Each structure stands twice: as C-alpha cells, then as structure tokens.
Amino acid sequence: MPTGHKRQGSALEANRRDELLRAAARLFVEKGFDATTTRDIAEAVGMRSGSPFYHFRSKQDLLKAAMIEGLEASHQRLQAAVAGINDPERRLRVMIRNHLGILLEGDCHAPMLVYESRSLGITARTEIAAVSDRYQQDWQATLEQLAASGKLRLPAKPMRLLLFGMLNWSRQWYRPNGGLSLDEIAEAAAEMVLA
Amino acid sequence: MPTGHKRQGSALEANRRDELLRAAARLFVEKGFDATTTRDIAEAVGMRSGSPFYHFRSKQDLLKAAMIEGLEASHQRLQAAVAGINDPERRLRVMIRNHLGILLEGDCHAPMLVYESRSLGITARTEIAAVSDRYQQDWQATLEQLAASGKLRLPAKPMRLLLFGMLNWSRQWYRPNGGLSLDEIAEAAAEMVLA
DNA sequence: CCTACCGATCGGTAGG
DNA sequence: CCTACCGATCGGTAGG
Fold first, then answer.
1. Closest residue to A154, CB basis, from B33, B158, B188
2. A184: which chain B residues are within 8 Å (Cβ-Cβ)?
3. Which nucleotide has the shortest C1'-to-CA distance from B54?
4. What pTM, to 2 d.p., does this model score?
C-alpha cells in the first residue's frame, strides 16, 4: 500500500510543519526573531537542532511562512466573524473585538509578527505587505462606509491608522485579569472612532 | 597641569560616551537589540570593536543607559515645552505634538527603545519602568484635569493607554513627506481624545 | 528526522 | 582606546 503510506506520511509531515510554524510564531512574538534560535523552535516541538531545516530552507523562511499563514488565518477568522453583518457600525465593533482576540488571546498573535518584517529581505517583505494589505482593505471599506454616513470622527484612512495603533499597542500593556477586559478595550476603542 | 589634563580627559570621555549612546539608541531602534552588534556601534562612532567596553561593562548596560538617559531627556524636553501652559486642552495638544517630534523627528526615538526592554534582566527593567512612569504621570495628570471638566471621551487611564497606542504606533507607518504631516497626526489624535 | 559537525560571528577580555 | 584573541553560540549541512 505505497500510496496509503505516502498519504499518511505527507499528512504527518504537514502536521509537523504546522507545529513548527505555531511554535515559531509564538517564540518570535515573545522574544523576537533574533533572540529565538532555531534550536529553541526545534525543542519546542520535540525535535533535534537540525530537523527544522528538513521542513524549511532557512530560519527566515520559517518567519516568512509563519507571517503569511498567520495573517491569512487571521483574515479568514475576521471574515467569518463579520459574515452577514450588514450594519457597518455593528460590523466595525465585531471587527475590533475579533482583532483584539487574535492579538491578545491564544498563542500566535499573527498581527504582531509584522513587526519582525525588518529581519527579512525586501522580496519577502513585499509578499507579506500584500497579504497584510488584504486584511487592511476590509477595514478600510467598513470605515469608508461609516465616513460616508457621517459616523466617523476622522477621514477613513487616518482613522484606520490611529485605530490600529490603539489596538495593536494594547499588546504592550494588556494583562489578562488586569484593569481592562477585552470587551472593555473594544468598547473604548469603538467609542473613540465613532462620532 | 595634571588636574587640567584630567578635566579635559573626562570631558572628552563623556563626549565619546554620549556618542556611543546616541549611536546605540539609533541602531537599537532601527535594527533591534539583538541584530545590532557592538561592532556596529563601535564602527558608527569610529572606534575599534573592543573599545565600547571601555565605556560600558556590557551590551546590555549600553541599552539600559541609552534607555534611561533617552527617556529622561525626552521628559525634560516635554516639561520645557509645556512650561507655563495652564489651559489643559492646549497643554495636551502641545504634549502630543512634542511626543510625535521625539518619536518621529531626529535620531534617537527614545520612547521606542522601551520596546527593547525584554532584552534586559528584571532589575534593569524595573529601573526603566520607574523612569517611564514619571513620563506617563505628566500625561495622566493632564488627562485627569480634562476628564474632571468633562472634556475627555473616556476615563483618563484607558484614554492614556489608547492615546499612546495611536502615537507610538505611528512609527510603523509614518513617512516624512508622506500623506500626513506631524501637525496633522497631532491634530487628528487630539480630535479623537477630546469630547 | 537524527547524528555529527563546520564556519562564521559575536560579546567580551588581557595587556598595553 | 587599540591589538590580538578566546569561548560560546548559532544557522546550516552531509550522510544516513
């Protein structure tokens, strides 16, 4: 049953690859790209030091893949969360809460990985910018809809930039069980944005 | 004239030390702590690779000193800028514009160095947090004054956190001669904060 | 995916 | 502050 074996082998390999990506994403966000060694990543998934290079050509390739796949997963999660919500104000509130969830709950915190782009060459940075832009465009569209009906305190573009600042910077100060819950942060941010 | 020599020597040494601090601050913000080698820093001021260690015990000491002295200089610059401004709304606007200037103009960008704290031990981190807190307290006081007269859209503390997010995150997207000038960003941020 | 290993780099030091 | 150098670590590879 060689085909069977092959299929199973591929599935297992894909699993191991995903484990590496998740561990790498977590460690890169926690300690930064340079402070994370490929040995750290290998150990986090129970491999020996040389083995990650069976799945990825280089450490930079690992970062690039973690960023692209993490951002795409975040984007899909966002689109699933707003599916069917037509009122732009409600949609924005759901997007904000969803973004905070990706950022502050769970393990991967994909949007923060963008900060590590400077460790990559310009080619990879361009690819990542394209994925990131698609995520931003959903926000831009909703913000423009709100601006058109006079519900935004600023034009859509500067508003988007300042809004992402409020949300993404929360990683610097947010503590679970701290002064503010995710719902409260989301509500405060929405309050600032909407007229 | 040994005393004369000594004084001159000390002054020159202090100058070299300051040059190292400025170069280190710039490189740490640009490339990150780990990606910056002590050789990079030495070269930036025209020294040989071992010489920074005549002025600083370790690379971490260099970061710590750059952070503390950079934050204190920023704080003094802020206090000088608001000296004599009694209207809290005008004071906040000046503080915002001043913070953006420190962040986005010039060379050192001290507030961004705080992001590199994770490369230090807990003792140094605590010292730095104390300096940083003094900077934050001036903001907190002004925001509370505004909140007391109903001019703030949110309570002072969450407002301070979200405001710093808007401002500090601008380093990620701001480009000189880009779409928004520093004055425009400052105005937009103030618009979001004030009721 | 492991074992064994290499070349390069880097923080830091001794001695002047 | 320079010269000369060391020990450790790290990304990456060969060969199985």
1. B188
2. 158
3. D1
4. 0.93
Taking contacts as CB-CB distances below 8 angstroms, the residues of chain A near B153 are: 191-192
Q: Write the pLDDT tens digit of every residue in B27-86.
A: 999 999 999 999 999 999 999 999 999 999 999 999 999 999 999 999 999 999 999 999
Separation of alpha carbons B40 and A125, rounded Å: 24
Distance of A36 CA from D1 C1′ (whole Å): 34
B144 Cβ neighbours under 8 A, 6+ residues apart: B156
For residue B137, what are its two tokens? Answer: 């307290």
Cross-strand partners of B194: B152
Interatomic CA distance for residues A52 and A19, integer angstroms: 11
The secondary element (H helix, E strand) that includes residue B169 is helix B156-173
Å between CA of A116 and C1' of C5: 31
Residues 6+ apart with CB under 8 A from A30: A36
When pLDDT is cut at 50, 70 and 90, the band that residue A9 belongs to is low
End-to-end CA distance of chain B: 65
CB-CB contact of B92 with B9 (8 Å)? no
Which token pair is A178? 């701290």
Sign of CA dihedral B166, B167, B169, B174: positive
Which residues from A are below 8 Å from B when comparing CB atoms?
A: 31-35, 115, 118-119, 153-154, 157-159, 161-162, 164-170, 172-173, 179-180, 184-185, 188-189, 191-193
The pLDDT value recorded for residue B1 is: 31
Rounded CA gap, B4 and B70, in Å?
Answer: 30
C-alpha closest to that of A70 among A105, A33, A30, A114: A114
Q: Is the pLDDT of residue A8 over 70?
A: no
On chain A, the residues whose CB falls within 8 A of the CB of B168 are 165, 169
Chain B residue with minimal CA distance to A34? B34
Residue B102: beta bridge partners? none
Closest CA to A98 of A22, B168, B155, A90: A90
Q: Could you tell me which chain A residue has the CA closest to the CA of B157?
A: A179
Contact A162 B189 (CB under 8 A): yes
Of A68, A69, A42, A72, the C-alpha closest to A135 is A72
Extract the tokens encoding B105: 């103009």
For tokens 């690819």, what's the residue?
A: A127
Please answer whether residues B78 and B98 qualify as being in contact, where contact means their C-beta atoms are separated by less than 8 angstroms: yes
**Average per-residue pLDDT in chain B?**
93
